[in-house]
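Re: the 109-residue chain
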Amino acid sequence: MKMPAREAVKKYALRMTKYEGSVMISICDLELVGTKLEYGELVINLTKEYFQEEVIEEHEAAELLNGCSIANLVGERIVSKAINLRLAKELSVRRISGIPFLMIYKFGY
C-alpha cells in the first residue's frame, strides 16, 4: 500500500543577533539563499554567510517573529507569515526583483 506524500516542510534560513536585551532576526525563504536581488543601483545579496547561520522550520519562524525586537524578512512565505501574524501590513512590503522584502521594528515601552 502506497503511503500519501508528506506535506513539504517549509524551511527558512535564519541569522539571529542578540544585543543589550534586543533580538534581531534575519529570515529568508531557504530557496532564496544564494540569489541576488536588484532594483536600479540597489543590490541585495542573499548570501549563505549572512542569512543561513541555521535552517529552521515554520513553527520556529513563527516563535522567533513573535519574540524578536527587529526582523529583516525576504521571501513570499516568511513575509506572508509575518502579515498573517499581524506583525505588519501588506502596504509595508517592498518588492525587489519581484521578491517581497519587509523590515519590522517593534518599539518597546
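The chain has one domain: 11-105.
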